[in-house]
Structure formats: structure tokens, C-alpha cells
Design brief:
about 200 residues, alpha/beta, seven-stranded mixed β-sheet, disordered N terminus
């Protein structure tokens, strides 16, 4: 596990918070902007965990990866996307961990659908959930699992595109895309950033 570098993910100092960005409610559940929610739902299902309401303003599910493994806290902010940072900051404080132990999963327009890119830090690319998170935390130096959704077709507005469900042509591959993103989160926790990038950036 990569824990020797300053700022690296370190499950030995406390739980890892895995946040799936999205908007609350059934209206948005199947939209591209909510792929972060879909990924943490998959991680909860893999570990037979149920969601509970946390006073910080989020749904949370807690489990350990394997027997005696690191504690993981899955998070779905109950706020709309542009206010995601508030509950994330509150939960980091509640669990007494820093941003080095935060993984944020989000949709990414600049990456082709069905592709993943993993990084720490960087810009927000106009993503309101990332903007809110960076502002609330006072830093951009957190891990991101960027799930590609591709660019809108023709002249469709990007804001409209992300709030629409995945196209029929994408539905056949969506489950695999979500599985792959969930695998990437588990890899980050177990093996660290460099190994995860080497594995998932080969596609």
C-alpha cells in the first residue's frame, strides 16, 4: 500500500471517505451527473451495507475491506451538487481524518464514456460538485475517480446533457463502467494511486 509519500492515502490513520457526487431524489438518480452515486451504491451492495442518514447532511454506509482491513465510509451528500462540499467537510471533521483520506467519484465530460482516469488534485473543469468540495475544504488536493461520460452531441448544452439519463447505446456498458470505477476505488485503498493509475489508465 502506498503510504510513504506525504499526502498519500493512509487507511492506518483513520477511515477512508469515499464520496459519490450527485443530486438527490429519484428525478436525478439515473442521470449522467449521478454516476458517482451509482458507484458508491455498487460498493455498498458489494459489502452488503445499507445506507443511514448522518447529521452532516449525507447518507453514509460503513464497512471494513476484508477481515481486519481498513475502514471505509461511503458517502452520498444529501445536498444538490453545488453544495456538496458542506457535508463532505463536516464528515471529514466528524471522522477526524484529512483530505489525504478522501476519494471523490464524479462524472467527467472530458473523458470518453466507459473510460476512467484517477488523479489527486487538479482543476474542477467547471464541475460544480468539485468546485463546492474544493471551496469547503480549502484545497484541491484530494483523490478523484473521474468516470467518463463524454461530450454532448451536436450543440447540446453541457448542463442539459449531464442531467439526462444515459443513452440506450450506453446502457449496455453502464454496469461495466460502474463496476470498473468501484474496482478503482478498492484498488486506491489497497494499492495506492500509482498502481491504480497503471492498471486503469491502460484501457
Amino acid at each position: 500500500m502506498a503510504t510513504s509519500t506525504v499526502g498519500s492515502l493512509d487507511p492506518t490513520i483513520g477511515p477512508v471517505l469515499v464520496v459519490g457526487l450527485g443530486n438527490p431524489g429519484d428525478r436525478y438518480a439515473a442521470t449522467r451527473h449521478n454516476i458517482g452515486h451509482m458507484v458508491v451504491n455498487e460498493l455498498a451492495a458489494r459489502n452488503s451495507e445499507h445506507w443511514n442518514v448522518h447529521k452532516a447532511g449525507a447518507a453514509v454506509a460503513e464497512f471494513r475491506m476484508g477481515i481486519g482491513g481498513p475502514k471505509v465510509v461511503l458517502v452520498k451528500p444529501a445536498t444538490y451538487m453545488n453544495l456538496s462540499g458542506r457535508p463532505i467537510a463536516a464528515l471529514l471533521k466528524f471522522f477526524k481524518v484529512g483530505v489525504e483520506n478522501l476519494i471523490v467519484i464524479h462524472d467527467e465530460l472530458d473523458i470518453e464514456f466507459d473510460m476512467l482516469r484517477i488523479k489527486r488534485g487538479g482543476g474542477e473543469g467547471g464541475h460544480n460538485g468539485l468546485k463546492s468540495t474544493s471551496q469547503a475544504l480549502g484545497t484541491k488536493d484530494y483523490l478523484r475517480v473521474r468516470a467518463g461520460i463524454g461530450r454532448p452531441p451536436g450543440r447540446m448544452n453541457a448542463a442539459d446533457y449531464v442531467l439526462r439519463p444515459f443513452a440506450k447505446t450506453e446502457q449496455d456498458h453502464l454496469a461495466l463502467h460502474i463496476d470498473s470505477a468501484a474496482d478503482a476505488v478498492e484498488s486506491l485503498i489497497e494499492y495506492g494511486l500509482a498502481a491504480t493509475q497503471n492498471r486503469f489508465h491502460q484501457k
